[in-house]
Amino acid sequence: MEHDEGISNHSGNRPFEDVLEVNMQRRKVLAGGLAGAAMGFFSAPALAGMKGWGQDRNDTAHRGGRRSSRLLGFSPVPVAEGNGPWPAISSDYHYDVLIPWGEPLEPSGPAYQWPPTAADQARQIGIGHDGMWFFPIEDKGCRDDDDRAHWGRHKDIWRGGENRHGLLAINHEFGENMHVLGKAAPESLEDVRVSQHAHGVAVVEIQKKGRIWRAVESDNARRIHVNTPVAFSGPVAGHALLDTPNGNIPLGTVNNCSNGHTPWGTYLTCEENFNGYFGAAGSWSATDAQKRYGFSSNGFGYGWHLFDRRFDLSDEDYRNEEHRFGWVVEIDPFDATQTPVKRTALGRFKHEGVAITEGRGKRVVAYMGDDERFDYIYKFVSEDNWKKMRRAGKSPLDHGMLYVAKFNDDGTGEWLALTIDNPALAARFADQAEVLTYARMAADVLGATPMDRPEWTTVAPNGDVYCTLTNNSRRTVADAANPMAPNPDGHIIRWRDADKHVGTTFTWDIFLIAADTHGTEDSFASPDGIWADPDGRLFIQTDGGQKDGLNNQMLVADTMTGELRRIFTGVSGDEITGITVTPDRRTMFINMQHPGEGDPTVTNFPAELDGVTVPRDCTIVITRKNGGIIGS
Question: Which positions make up the signal peptide (predicted)?
Answer without folding.
Answer: none
